[in-house]
Amino acid sequence: MNKSSILALSLLLLLSGCGYFEQARRDGAYFEDDGPPSDMGPDPSTISDAVPVIEPLSRTGNKPYTVFGVQYRPLKSADGYREKGTASWYGRKFHGRRTSSGEVYDMYAMTAAHKTLPLPTYVKVRNLETGAEIVVRVNDRGPFLGGRLIDLSYMAARKLGVVATGTGRVEVMTVTPRTASVPVQEIVVSGEQVDSVFLQAGSFRLRGNAEALRHQLADNGLAGITLTKTWVGDTLYYRVRVGPLSRGKAADQGLERIRAITGVEPRIVEVRH
């Protein structure tokens, strides 16, 4: 085998190992040796959509790359992205493997693969036939066959209603973190004298989103970060807070730091004694 043949074979094996290489599909439903889990997995109604949170770009998966002779250049920004096309999905064959972002693929998570959107990016996917909508977190590259626009995780495809058909016409648009969309509830410990405050940077239904925000704050030098669990009615929220901080200059500086890092307005939670 000559040098060029060895190089081509090595590239093929590399792509197949990290989710780049796609085999021909029999009927469009999934890869020839892929498919849904044997037990169908959790009820989709119990799985929440991905909740957008500001995150740094992943360390891998955002540089130009070539697959099947086609070069792709990931976008620097996803702002304003909107496109219609065909969605497909991938399941058990890739479950537990590394995605292009370096994360482990979980077919029960609300994630997706896209050829050029920055990793990670949050997008809303709308089924053009049924009007159903989901929000997923793009953390992988693909799909590379059939002119498809986006590859959904198994669970995302179930929620969107395209598992049985294998593919579906969709519209994909980016969504960004919005302060109004973050469910929060201020907690005040009864009393008279306000000694200190906590700054609530975010409140989420998914622990992974809260962890991502906690790491983002820590990576930017903030200290005193806590992640707590709080039930509001029948819903469990994961809250990310910074503090306690003295009222006045320390709290004001903390507010400015969190705004600069996340782009959202933190909530002041008073602690009374």
Specify the oligomeric state.
single chain
Strand count: 12
What does the radius of gyration come to?
Answer: 21 Å
Instruction: State the shape.
Output: globular
Q: Given the helix and strand composition, which structural class is it? A: alpha+beta
- The DSSP helix count reads 4
CATH superfamily of the largest domain: RlpA-like domain
The termini sit apart by 78 Å
CATH class of the largest domain: Mainly Beta
Task: Look up the CATH topology of the largest domain.
Answer: Barwin-like endoglucanases
Second rung of CATH, namely the architecture of the largest domain? Beta Barrel
How would you describe this protein?
The chain is an alpha+beta fold. The chain folds into 2 domains: 18-174, Barwin-like endoglucanases, CATH 2.40.40.10; 179-272, Sporulation related repeat (Alpha-Beta Plaits). Helices cover 18% and strands 30% of the residues. The chain is built from 4 helices and 12 strands. It has helices at residues 3-17, 154-160, 207-219, 249-262; strands at residues 65-67, 70-72, 82-90, 111-114, 121-127, 133-140, 150-153, 168-174, 194-204, 225-232, 235-246, 267-272. Strands 3-7-4-6-5-8 form a 6-stranded mixed beta barrel. The relative contact order is 0.16. Residues 2-30 and 179-194 have low confidence and may be disordered.
